[in-house]
Amino acid sequence: MRPLTEEETRTFFEKLSKYIGENIKLLLDRPDGTYCFRLHRDRVFYVREDIMKKAGNVSRENLLSLGTCYGKFTKTGKFRLHITALDYLAPYAKYKIWLKPSAEQQFLYGHHVMKSGLGRITENTNKYQGIVVYSMGDLPLGFGVAARSTQDCRHADPMTIVAFHQADIGEYIRSEDTLV
Questions:
Q1: Which of 52, 19, 18, 23 is nearest to 35 (CA)?
Q2: Considering only 86-90, 130-134, 159-163, 170-174, which range has the smallest mean pLDDT?
Q3: Which of 42, 15, 13 is nearest to 28 (CA)?
Q4: Of the chain's two ends, which shows fewer C-beta atoms within 10 Å, N or C?
Q5: What does the pLDDT average to over 148-162?
Q6: Gap between the Cα atoms of 176 and 157, Å rounded
């Protein structure tokens, strides 16, 4: 477990800022303690500093996980967010979409969001902007990337993709067999 390098930090914060913008500061300085991001086996973990210091007594080989996994770095150096970060990203999300009840199941199966399943969308959402996907009951379901801007969505065909799927809470069940 080590701090992120300058390049890793830049890549990681660029990805986070696509979803929560300047609210990254709120993740680090919280009223319940100071938190930090640490890298372990290509995965970025979000952990309270006092717990991180205590975990320093455990050898790298024996340490499996610490805190909440936000995602992992690929072999090419890109960062991919995991669904475990959803609970921390959702309250600070700048851009959101809400799905109709008929489209929730399709999204949870890993499909993109069609215009026919779109309930609402945050105003001024740009194309290729990171978004958090909610049910109409304000339950965060996952996150993705806007395929169309808010203005384009108003005039789009019902079968047009308006958001690309990135991750959803159904991944826990779909990847149940592959988890160690």
A1: 52
A2: 170-174
A3: 13
A4: C
A5: 92
A6: 36
Work out how many domains the chain is built from and give that number: 2
Please tell me the predicted confidence (pLDDT) of residue 178: 61
180 within a domain of the structure (yes/no): no
Residues 120-144: tens digit of each pLDDT: 999 999 999 999 999 999 999 999 9
In a domain, 179, yes or no: no
The amino acid at 124: N
- Size of the chain in residues: 180
Backbone dihedral angles phi then psi of residue 111, each to the nearest 5 degrees: -90, 160
**Do the strands 79-81 and 29-30 form a parallel or antiparallel pair, or are they unpaired?**
unpaired
Q: Which two tokens stand for residue 88?
A: 């921390």
Phi-psi region of 67 (alpha: psi -120 to 50; beta: other; left: phi over 0): left
Last residue of a domain, one of 70, 88, 106: 88
C-alpha dihedral, 158 to 161 to 166 to 170, nearest 10°: 30
3-state secondary structure 25-68: HHHHEECCEEEEEEEECCEEEEEEHHHHHHHCCCCCCCCCCCCE
CA–CA dist 173, 87 (Å, integer): 17
Task: Indicate the SS3 state at residue 20.
Answer: helix
Residue-wise DSSP of 111-155: PPEEGGGEEEE-TTPPTT-EEEEEETTS-EEEEEEESS-HHHHHT
The pLDDT score that the predictor gives to residue 95 is 93
